[in-house]
Design brief:
The complex is a heterodimer of chains A (364) and B (370). Chain A is 63% helix and 0% strand. Chain A is mostly helical and 364 residues long. Chain B is built from 11 helices and 10 strands. In chain B, helix 4 runs antiparallel to helix 6. The longest helix of chain B is centred in the N-terminal third of the chain and has 20 residues. Chain B is globular and about 65 Å long. Classes of the chains: A mainly alpha (364), B alpha+beta (370). Chains A and B meet through helix 6, helix 8, helix 16 and helix 17 of A and helix 1, strand 1, helix 2, strand 4 and strand 10 of B. Bound molecules: adenosine-5'-triphosphate and magnesium ion. Magnesium ion (MG) binds next to loops of chain B. Chain A: It comes from Hygrophoropsis aurantiaca.
Chain lengths: 364, 370
């Protein structure tokens, strides 16, 4: 699924210059499940962080009472900073592999969404980033083999990617389709081609390129979790050329009153996105992230460290539970196949029994 | 348990899995129920662990598109959850497919019935195309039929979106008999028109009750098409001789559709002809097809509930092969996790697909039982 790349899809949301909505976008999983208000976004991250800290603290304490007292756990904003660093690695890798922009944008979205459901103290963003990128090549239909992928990334094995792929897909709710701002910008750009009487010295192609740069910068921010792709695209166009964005908006408004083309509400929205993109649209300062990463080594969840005592205990517990479940299920089946099953008392043939057993699922 | 695992466990609990009802190329399908209301569902279990490149592309495509597309004539994906390393898609349960109905010789189709199936197919397809999704594998067996007669497009394992017009794509899609000539000639730039050709073939098959263009090889497929519709000229289809895999396959005259479809109305043949136009850009779109006079002329489409249904519901869909995951000799419970030497599911090659369903291979457990 793609963001609106035709003129009629380019305007959406309540405060768009055009009242007509985009039913396709509004039916999307992105619209329904992955949009937040700034406050809500903040709350989600804070709660996730608090729950993670409480749980890891417990694990430390269970292992050795008092051991969590001096651990400096990461705060929500520190987690976010680390994720942002790994967001900035994705364009680098995509450049190396010559992946299309769709892959890059999608992987970044996945990485951000993943950390709205998980904490970096459980899953370090390095491998999660590698996994979201690999997954994005597939979901955007640009697959490469895992071998080709990992052999081109230093110190990376197939299992670094595969072990997390399922968790990532699950965290995304298996909602793989993403609507992107760069596509919406492309839609606006196509519309602009048909605008007449633009000033002579206006260079639309250059403006488009600059706007696209701003769209790319917006990927370092939370904009896509708060605003629609078209709002972001229009903002980026307006940064590049206020005039062009006004003309486009005017052309979309039924009563093309060029003097007052943007509603106050939309102006506020564009202003907020503009602030985000210009202030936060860049990778984080390496030094401050380094400090966070150093502390992460001391506060990460021991249950997720392969081979640790807590890890082994967790695996054993999981195995015990599924064993019990399997036994119960098999017992149920045997009982059902036994005397009580058929009210008329006729025996199931051996073959029938075998078939019923074979038809049972083997994993739950 | 992590929040993500917990959410998954919650989802899993909503659905009960019963017995196996079928098996496709990359999945096993079970009948199931929704725990709260016993609504019948189908649970399609995709084994993830077995692919060296991780989650398999067909599974990804199917989930990606079905998650977004909600329409009366597209199969509804109700939920997705995982169990161990398997991906489970919970789908609405659909009793039969159009292939079974076409093959059931006891059923008589009225022109109004065919019109109804065609309308539902085009409605579902128009919605896909409106959402920039190409199906790329339309055939009677992928048009499933609900108990209320509604037709639902299923099997999005080959689907993709066509964001950039002119974006290169693989031509190795669509089961051969339903594959349009531009793909057979290796065209990499194609669009919604490929699906419309397939629907045209299905339309013809509904009238004939036998596949319309059953080529035996890719080369023979072109010949079969040209024998039926005439070899295209440069005027019919400008530039086709420049396509990557172009080869001349002989000159066949164009015979009027009327000669074969003797009972069809003029409107029906006009629509069929427009679905089977050689030049992809001139082929009718799904949206225009829905506005074609055929759908507004008498007889009106049958109400879905009045459509012919497969008569024998047991077994509703044949079991192809019994999974070899039972160890009858074990002293413990009869069911265990996959044995290391378990039977591999049979993969159908494109060739097999065309020569009919793979032969049922049943295991005889009676000998071994202790
Ligand atoms: N929604 C459903 N309701 C009821 N039965 C279904 C449903 N979906 C699939 N089945 C049954 O499971 C079988 C396997 O379905 P699946 O879609 O995996 O593969 P297929 O279409 O048969 O083959 P292929 O994978 O080659 O396309 C079907 O043939 C059918 O018998
Ligand atoms: Mg199928």
């Amino acid at each position: 699924m793609i963001a609106g790349n035709t003129s009629k899809d380019s305007a959406e949301a309540d405060n768009s210059p055009v009242k007509k909505k985009n039913p396709l976008y509004e039916a999307s999983t992105q619209y329904r499940n992955w949009r937040y208000s700034p406050e809500r976004l903040e709350a989600v991250r804070t709660q996730l962080n608090a729950a993670a800290v409480a749980k890891i603290r417990n694990t430390f304490e269970a292992d050795e009472p008092g051991s969590s007292a001096n651990v400096a756990f990461l705060s929500a904003s520190e987690e976010h900073l680390l994720v942002k660093l790994y967001v900035s690695k994705i364009p680098q890798l995509c450049g190396h592999f010559h992946f299309p922009e769709e892959v890059e944008a999608t992987a970044i979205t996945y990485l951000k969404r993943f950390y709205l459901k998980n904490t970096v103290m459980d899953w370090h963003p390095k491998n999660v980033m590698l996994t979201t990128l690999f997954l994005a090549t597939k979901t955007t239909n640009n697959p490469i083999s895992l071998e080709a992928y990992t052999s081109n990334i230093p110190k990376t094995s197939a299992s670094d990617v595969l072990d997390l792929e399922f968790l990532v897909a699950q965290s995304l709710g298996f909602e793989f389709a993403v609507w992107h701002a760069h596509r919406a910008l492309w839609g606006i750009w196509l519309d602009l081609q048909s605008l007449t009487d633009l000033p002579e010295d206006l260079r639309p192609q250059d403006i488009y390129e600059i706007a696209l740069k701003h769209v790319r910068a917006s990927r370092f921010t939370d904009a896509e979790l708060i605003y629609t792709p078209s709002q972001i695209a229009l903002t980026c166009l307006s940064i590049a050329s206020p005039l062009l964005s006004q003309r486009w908006a005017a052309s979309k408004t039924a009563s093309s009153s060029i003097s007052e083309p943007l509603s106050e509400l939309l102006k506020d929205t564009l202003g907020a996105i503009n602030a985000m993109v210009t202030q936060n649209g860049h990778p984080p300062d390496i030094e401050s992230v380094r400090e966070v990463d150093r502390r992460l080594k001391l506060c990460k969840n021991p249950e997720k460290v392969v081979g640790s005592k807590a890890y082994l205990a967790r695996i054993a517990e999981e195995e015990r539970l599924s064993e019990r479940k399997r036994n119960k299920k098999a017992e149920d089946v045997r009982r059902a196949l036994g005397e009580g099953a058929d009210p008329f008392g006729s025996d199931l043939s051996d073959k029938e029994q075998a078939k019923r057993l074979a038809e049972l699922d083997d994993d739950d | 348990m992590d929040a993500v695992e917990k959410a998954n466990a919650e989802r899993q609990k909503r659905w009960a899995k019963d017995q196996k009802v079928g098996e496709g190329t990359y999945a096993v399908v079970y009948r199931g129920r929704e725990a709260v209301n016993q609504r019948k569902v189908a649970i399609k279990k995709i084994k993830v662990g077995q692919f060296k490149d991780g989650l398999d592309m067909s599974a990804i495509r199917e989930v990606k598109y079905l998650r977004e597309l909600h329409h009366q004539n597209i199969i509804e994906l109700l939920d997705v959850f995982s169990s161990k390393t398997n991906l489970n898609l919970v789908l609405e349960f659909l009793d039969s497919d159009l292939e079974m109905i076409i093959k059931d010789r006891t059923l008589v189709f009225l022109p109004a019935d065919i019109k109804s199936w065609m309308a539902m197919t085009f409605r579902g397809l128009e919605f896909c195309h409106r959402n920039f999704v190409l199906h790329r594998d339309l055939k009677p067996n992928n048009l499933l039929i609900a108990s209320d007669g509604q037709l639902k497009i299923a099997d999005f394992g080959l689907a993709r979106d066509f964001a950039d017009p002119g974006y290169k794509m693989t031509c190795q899609v669509i089961t051969r008999w339903y594959r349009p000539p531009e793909l057979l000639y290796g065209s990499r730039y194609y669009s919604t028109a490929v699906d419309v050709w397939s629907v045209g073939c299905i339309f013809a098959e509904l009238m004939l009750r036998t596949p319309y263009l059953p080529g035996e090889t890719d080369m023979d497929q072109l010949k079969t098409i040209f024998r039926a519709l005439g070899t295209p000229t440069e005027e019919d289809w400008p530039g086709h001789t420049k396509l990557p895999d172009y080869v001349p396959v002989g000159q066949f005259p164009r015979t009027p559709l009327r000669d074969l479809f003797t009972a069809a109305t003029a409107d029906a043949l006009n629509l069929l002809g427009k679905c089977l136009i050689y030049e992809p850009r001139k082929r009718i779109s799904a949206r225009d097809a829905l506005h074609h006079p055929y759908f507004f002329a008498l007889p009106y489409p049958s109400h879905p509930s009045k459509l012919p249904k497969v008569s024998t519901q047991t077994p509703s869909r044949p079991l192809e092969e019994v999974d070899g995951n039972v160890d009858m000799n074990a002293s413990g419970p009869g069911v265990k996790a996959a044995a290391p030497n378990r039977l591999k599911r049979k993969l159908t090659s494109p060739g097999d697909e065309l020569s009919g369903r793979p032969l049922a291979r049943r295991l005889d457990f009676t000998q071994k039982r202790v």
